[in-house]
Amino acid sequence: MSAPDPLKLSLNTATIREKWNLAQAIEGCARHGIRGIAPWRDQLAAMGVKEAVRAIRSNGLTVTGLCRGGFFTAQDWKDDNRRAIEEAHALGAQCLVLVVGGLLPGSKDLPASRAKVQEGIAAILPEARQAGVPLAIEPLHPMQAADRACINTLEQALDTCDALGEGIGVAVDAYHVWWDPKLAQQVARAGKERLLAYHICDWLVPTRDLLNDRGMMGDGVIDLPRLRGLMEGAGYAGFHEVEIFSKLDWWQRDPDEVLRWCKDRHLAT
Amino acid sequence: MSAPDPLKLSLNTATIREKWNLAQAIEGCARHGIRGIAPWRDQLAAMGVKEAVRAIRSNGLTVTGLCRGGFFTAQDWKDDNRRAIEEAHALGAQCLVLVVGGLLPGSKDLPASRAKVQEGIAAILPEARQAGVPLAIEPLHPMQAADRACINTLEQALDTCDALGEGIGVAVDAYHVWWDPKLAQQVARAGKERLLAYHICDWLVPTRDLLNDRGMMGDGVIDLPRLRGLMEGAGYAGFHEVEIFSKLDWWQRDPDEVLRWCKDRHLAT
Q1: How many CB atoms lie within 10 A of CB B192?
Q2: How much is the ipTM here?
Q3: Is A143 in Cβ contact with B210 (below 8 Å)?
Q4: Is B2 a residue whose pLDDT tops 90?
Q5: CA terminus-to-terminus distance, chain B
Q6: How far is the C-alpha of B208 from the C-alpha of A185, rounded, in Å?
Q7: What is the mean pLDDT of residues B13-40?
Q8: Alpha helices, DSSP H only, in B62-152?
Q9: DSSP of A220-257, one letter per residue?
Q10: How far from chain centre, in Å, is Cα A120?
Q11: Which residues, 6+ apart, have CB-to-CB distance to B240 below 8 Å?
Q12: Cβ(A11)–Cβ(A259) under 8 Å?
């Protein structure tokens, strides 16, 4: 397997969001020669969609995903997802990442919550297709099943895709799926058409927080070269998007330093 | 579905281990009318196996499992598991619970670690069969894949059982498996013969620690009556073993109070 192409590195802005707004992140990517970016919608709203589109285009960046749609178990899911599709369209995003939402409010009924999620995706899928925005279901780690996403394995995500048809695939985040005994099988099953995004970071041992203690690539236990090999073997040729939620470490550092680490460590993934 | 039978409640001594040694736990179970107990081996060693056997028998308790064998990715796994089998035999334990171990030392190779685990179980299985001690693979939550157990789903555990033959089954711990989209399917697949133990507690939202922030039944989001229904539907008629690792809450309380809560909340699971 060849080394990763530096031109395939993308920055998910969550990685440096504590210190940089979206305009700064765009400039930072350009300055560091990072060719992809994945913004979050709150930052996009703060900057304004038009201005963000202008800055991203003028710097020649590829939008590897918009974070995020989903939360189909929340109250205002429909309008919010419609707006997300419009924004992803405006940005020319390669996909709209769906974090599907956890248990229905006040409920312990996981099967019902999962059914509601599938209904919700089905409801917005026609608009996404019309807008030319692929929807990417991101299976989240099982430790986030209750509060963030009740789709927790690639197999489950792909079963959902199978049920829904065209215009939908998966975002494979190393952090969420690395443990899965069916990882190789399900990445292969997904195939080029449905592998819409690839997110990288690392799993730290010990992990001190369920949400915000992700590691820089190479600092944890995920066999990232193996996973990239599985992705490429299945036909994926897109970006490698670094997404690090790290309250205790990386969010406290100078973003220019963080980007240098990302570029350096990416070469070994 | 009928209410749980109070006579099926078992106490995993991890629940009160900060304040009670094994002798106190045995007396406590007897005093509270709890008919099952699952001791840990360090406590067993401290009390002495003979004395523990005597106290457990004289109080008429059922040993619903011995915690634990496993850790096949560690150095001294073979001798340690042999001793565990002997102890489980001496106690008349219904099973020896296997926490299989995480990644091989210094390795990121999950498939190789999993292969090593299967080899290890295969190596000790003949002795377990001879001793009449069923081995119960406990799939652990994926968040513990790196450091505690690289068997992380019921499906994976049952695939391992299929490969190994007689004398081995699974311990279903609600905390570890509640999120699994294939839970119903795999519990049914396991069937009466391979469902060797059923552990209960609850998943708290938020969860503040990956290891030691489990909740009392009813305080979290796990649909325990549904899971009990699945277990009973598959033919399980054994004990319901409460196992709560809770540094921040239950371990700090008076164990007599904890046992009252266990009995009370068990009736609603």
Answers
A1: 12
A2: 0.97
A3: yes
A4: no
A5: 11
A6: 33
A7: 98
A8: 77-91, 110-131
A9: SS--HHHHHHHHHHTT--S-EEE---BTTTGGGS-HHH
A10: 19
A11: B4, B8, B9, B10, B198, B200, B228, B266, B269
A12: yes
pLDDT per residue as tens digits for the range A120-165: 999 999 999 999 999 999 999 999 999 999 999 999 999 999 999 9
Token reading at A22: 């979206």
Structure tokens at A196: 């819409």
Contacts of B117 in chain A (CB under 8 A): none
Question: Which letter does DSSP use for residue B185 in this model?
Answer: H
Please report the pLDDT score of residue A172 as a whole number.
98
User: What is the pTM (predicted TM-score) of this model?
Assistant: 0.97
Alpha-carbon distance B34 to B62, whole Å?
A: 10
* CB A43 within 8 Å of CB A63: no
B/e letters for B193-209, b = 16+ CB within 10 Å, e = fewer, are ebbbbbbbbbbbeebeb
B60 φ/ψ sector (left φ>0, alpha ψ -120 to 50, else beta)? left
- Which residues 42-101 in chain B show a CB within 8 A of chain A? none
Identify which of A109, A156, A178 has the shortest CB distance to residue B181. Answer: A156
Q: Can you say how many angstroms the Cα of residue A76 is from the centroid of all Cα atoms in its chain?
A: 22
Residue corresponding to tokens 């019309």: A130
- DSSP calls for B151-181: --SHHHHHHHHHHH-TTEEEEEEHHHHTT-T
Counting Cβ atoms within 10 Å, is residue A239 exposed (0-12), middle (13-18) or buried (19+)? Answer: buried
A247-259 confidence digits (pLDDT tens): 999 999 999 999 9
Q: How far apart are CA B119 and CA B108, in angstroms?
A: 18
User: Measured between CA atoms, how close is A222 to chain B, in angstroms?
Assistant: 6
A203 touches chain B (CB under 8 A): yes
For residue A23, the model assigns a pLDDT of 98
Q: In the structure encoding, which two tokens stand for residue B141, read together?
A: 């939550």
Distance of CA A220 to the CA centre of its chain: 19
Query: Residue A118: in which H helix or E strand, if any?
Result: helix A110-131
